[in-house]
Design brief:
Blueprint: H1 11-19, E1 26-29, E2 42-45, H2 54-66, E3 70-74, E4 79-82, E5 84-90, E6 93-98, E7 103-105, E8 109-112
Antiparallel strand pairs: 1-2, 3-4, 3-8, 5-6, 6-7
């Protein structure tokens, strides 16, 4: 029976969970663990995203209204050729709903062509 938080798990289990809210999250071995946990703990660094600038949001909205094809350069290295079908505010962030129903946080887009 567990009497404490759910300790354990693997970095590959945790990263996708944190990346939804913190796209630039990093995890690395903890350097100051107590002896019984040395080598088994991770240090997590998560930085809250900056608000999306009005100029970029305006460009997203224009592309969505015109249903114009765009190329989104996402901070994780992906390039998405798509159309923006909608923009919604959810979970404290703006989300781009793409034509294939994929959702991308607006603040994870580095640039749009």
């Amino acid at each position: 029976m567990r009497t404490s938080p759910p300790f354990g798990g693997f970095i590959n289990d945790y990263l996708p969970l944190f990346r939804r809210w913190f796209p630039g999250v990093t995890m690395e071995p903890c350097q100051n663990s107590i002896a019984p946990r040395a080598g088994r703990e991770l240090w997590l660094k998560a930085v809250k995203n900056k608000p999306v600038g009005c100029a970029l949001l305006d460009r997203f909205e224009e592309a969505a209204l015109q249903q114009r094809p765009v190329l989104l350069h996402v901070n994780d290295g992906r390039r998405l050729a798509c159309r923006i079908s909608n923009i919604v505010a959810r979970d404290g962030a703006d989300w781009l709903i793409l034509d294939d129903r994929m959702e991308v946080r607006a603040d994870s887009v580095a640039r749009m062509e």
